Every structure is written in C-alpha cells, then in structure tokens.
Known about the structure:
By secondary structure, this protein is mainly β.
Amino acid sequence: MLEIERKYLLETMDWKKEIIQSITNIKQAYLFEDHEKSVRIRVRSDQAFMTIKMGKGVTRNEFEYSIPVSDAEEMIEKASLLCLEKDRYVIEYQGAIWEIDVFKGKYEGLVLAEIELRDENQEIQLPAWIGEEVTNDPAYLNVNLFKNL
C-alpha cells in the first residue's frame, strides 16, 4: 500500500472554524527507525495500530495493522519508549480531507496540516490558512520529532 501525502505548516489558526470531526488524541512511539524505514505503534482513542513505513518523500510504502490497545500499551511500557503526543482534527476543504495535528509536550505550539492524495500530481486547492510546505523537510517527520523527545 502506498501513502501519498503532503505536509504543511499553518499560516493562521483559522482552520478551527472548519472542523468536521472532534479531537482525537494520538500517542505514538517507534520500535524501530532508520533513514527510510520505521515501525510505529499508535494509540488513537480506543484503537491501536502497528505501522510499517518505507521510503521517503511524498510517496512511501505504508502497511498498517490493527492491534489490541492493551498490546500497544504493553509494548510501549516494556520497551520504555517515550511517546509523541498530539491532538488531531479533521477538516474538509473543497472536497479534500485535511488532518491537522496539534502537538503536545516538547512540541507544544507546533501545528501541521497533512493531506493524503491519490497520486503525486493531484492538484489541490490550498486553504488560506496553509503556510510553507514541509513535505520534504525531514525535521517535520513524526519519526524525527520522536527521536528528539
């Protein structure tokens, strides 16, 4: 499975007027990561997932599997992993779904917008609140944020 995604900083907080889905708290940790591969555990409300990502840039291979929340919590605890935490909001803008991540803890104040695409060349209308694109900036990859906790 491929994940085709673009990531942006936000220019303003006007996106809050357009929320279509309430807050989802996300806690995630990485069991393994290197330059172009990672294995992530994510707890999202009452669901948990193990995700394997490979590649870099706009298009990456992504394999995601549902796992019991208790297993995810136990893996995080047994491996003594710190967790990257954020609240996610979902917004629809001109037929496209945007996910807005508001980070907590060390990254308080960081807010990123992501949009998944059908293909790398898909044209999208950027909302006025979108700022600089950071898709290809490794500093904004969740795995790199996690490594710097």
